[in-house]
Every structure is written in structure tokens, then in C-alpha cells.
Write a structure and sequence with these properties.
Number of domains: 1
Number of strands: 7
Radius of gyration: 16 Å
Structural class: alpha/beta
Strand content: 15-25%
Distance between the termini: 20 Å
Number of helices: 5
Largest sheet: 7 strands, mixed
Order of helices and strands: EHEHEHEHEHEE
Helix content: 40-55%
CATH architecture: 3-Layer(aba) Sandwich
CATH superfamily: NAD(P)-binding Rossmann-like Domain
Shape: globular
Bound molecules: NADP nicotinamide-adenine-dinucleotide phosphate
CATH topology: Rossmann fold
């Protein structure tokens, strides 16, 4: 498939495994220079090595940074220059009864799942506007529309991501920068 992304650069939050890693592979197939991310240095390094083996002629970078760590997030934002495509993918989830979800859980979920995308978008959107080209993709979930009764904290963050993507898209109406929100259902994306 040619998505006409040849020569572009992408950052994917939370991409040492799972959906983020699969997105990295797909973008590399499209000749996009990819930067992956995770919170654990060894896992980040291992994922980067695997991608290098699979795509030996591609440009692959990695930044270790934990989205719960303020200093690491600031360093990450400083290192991100010239990114055309931002994939706000990082997300944590677990099944938990409403009565057992602590204040700390609520704040941790908001920090990782929502504020990571706010901070990354705020950092990279001006560069995209200057270049008159960019993409910001929010990996949300069906759980943000139909909130699971045993993951209300998770559903709240996925609904928030859709709200942010929706609002941002209005900021660039008529521009060539498109902000999209994605609902992922069974490892497929619905982009609206
Ligand atoms: N899986 C599903 O069925 C499903 C369904 C709907 C939507 N989604 C959404 O899709 C996205 C990806 O899900 P997934 O299942 O692929 O996730 P996953 O397999 O659990 O992978 C999570 C990734 O995020 C990284 N990560 C976790 N916490 C982090 C933190 N604090 N700072 C930096 N990186 C962190 C992990 O890196 P390390 O552990 O290596 O540090 C890992 O690379 C999420 O937003 C999720 O809500 C998933």
C-alpha cells in the first residue's frame, strides 16, 4: 500500500509492543522514519533491534521516557524535532471495580493516557503548522464510547482522547494538518 508518506517522520508513544509496535512496522513499510518509545530501556532497545533486523535500510530511533515522569517527559519533548506524524498510542488498562479505583489510579490513568497526548500534540502541532503538513492520530477505543462497567477509569480517558482530537481538528480547519481520532475495535482502527 502506498499511503504517500515516503520520507516523512513519525513518533509513536508506547511502541515497544502491541499496537504501537505494529504501527511502527507499518510506517516503516511506507518508508517513514520512525521513533519508538517505552518506559524501560532494555525493552525499548530490544524493540528497536527487532525493527532494525526487519527493516535494515530504514531510519529507526528510540527514546526511553516514562509518561509518569515529568523530567523524562520534558527531555522527550525536547528531543522531538521535525516530526510529521504523531501517533498518540500509549495507554494503560486493567479491569477494576469502581469501588476499588483509587484517586491515584484516576490520576495515573489521566496522566498516561490523556496528558501524554496533550503534551505531545502541544509540542508538535506548531512544527506541523509551520510546515503546512502533519498528522496527529489518537488511538482511542470502543471503551471511550460504550464505557465498560469494570473499567470506568479507562473509558473516561478514551472518551477524553476523542474530545481532544475532535477539538484540535477544529483548530486547523482548512489547513493541511489533520487531527483524527481513532476508535480501535479488535485491532482495527475506525478513523472519523
Ligand atoms: N489491546 C486492545 O485490545 C486495545 C483495544 C482498544 C484500544 N487500545 C488502545 O491501544 C493502545 C495500545 O494498546 P496495546 O494493547 O497495544 O498496549 P500494550 O501492548 O500494553 O503496550 C503498551 C505500550 O505502552 C508502553 N507504556 C506503558 N506505560 C508507559 C508509560 N508510562 N510511559 C511510556 N510508555 C509506556 C509500553 O512500553 P514498556 O512496557 O516497554 O515500557 C508498551 O510499549 C492503548 O492506548 C489502548 O488503550 C487497545
Amino acid at each position: 500500500m502506498d499511503l504517500k508518506l515516503n520520507g516523512k517522520s513519525a513518533f509513536i508513544s508506547g511502541s515497544t509492543q502491541g499496537i504501537g509496535f505494529a504501527i511502527a512496522q507499518q510506517l516503516l513499510k511506507e518508508n517513514v522514519a520512525v521513533t519508538i518509545n517505552g518506559r524501560n530501556k532494555e525493552r525499548v532497545s530490544k524493540a528497536k533491534d527487532t525493527l532494525k533486523q526487519q527493516f535494515p535500510n530504514s531510519t529507526i530511533s528510540a527514546i526511553t521516557a516514562d509518561f509518569t515522569n515529568k523530567e523524562e517527559v520534558e527531555r522527550l519533548l525536547g528531543e522531538l524535532t521535525d516530526i510529521d506524524i504523531l501517533i498518540n498510542n500509549v495507554g494503560i488498562f486493567e479491569v477494576k471495580d469502581f469501588q476499588d479505583i483509587t484517586d491515584k489510579d484516576w490520576y495515573d490513568y489521566f496522566e498516561i493516557n490523556v496528558m501524554s497526548s496533550v503534551r505531545l500534540s502541544r509540542q508538535l502541532l506548531p512544527q506541523m503548522l509551520n510546515k503546512k503538513w502533519g498528522r496527529i492520530i489518537f488511538i482511542s477505543s470502543e471503551s471511550g464510547v460504550n464505557i465498560p462497567e469494570n473499567m470506568i477509569h479507562y473509558g473516561m480517558t478514551k472518551a477524553a482522547m476523542m474530545a481532544i482530537g475532535n477539538g484540535l481538528s477544529k483548530l486547523t480547519k482548512g489547513d493541511q494538518v489533520k487531527k483524527l481520532w481513532g476508535i480501535k475495535i479488535r485491532h482495527k482502527f475506525l478513523i472519523a
